[in-house]
Here is the input.
Amino acid sequence: MTFDGVDFPRPGALPYLTVSEARAAIDWYTRVFGAEIAGDPVVMDDGRIGHAELIFPTGMVYVAEEFPEMGLTAAEAGATSVSLMLPVDDTDGVLARARDAGGTVERWITESHGHRNATLLDPFGHRWLLVGPVTGNHSGDTR
Here is the structure.
């Protein structure tokens, strides 16, 4: 897959994120990453979102509320076992939006291996590896 002139491997699996506050997560992913909601989320009888589909420029991500009674619990900060690599066209801009919207920057922007990279935790416990085109600005500190 090519995104903004940069080649990325084709994803091997469709991410299905479990979050504690699905409505807030959907809002965050649309505001920060520019995702769009595909159709109406499935709302369960108890008000929890059972399924939502978000369209990112590079593919689809599913989101659902946690259902502990089914063994589906949200990620915990500091205990995330999966990282999501997200190709972006403006690493600096996305990282700044994420930080301003309550995300935690784990690694500030660096340029290496032909990409401009940064790592953040969203407010819902998921780790995102932002990968964008190089700019020649190696400081990358947008704090």
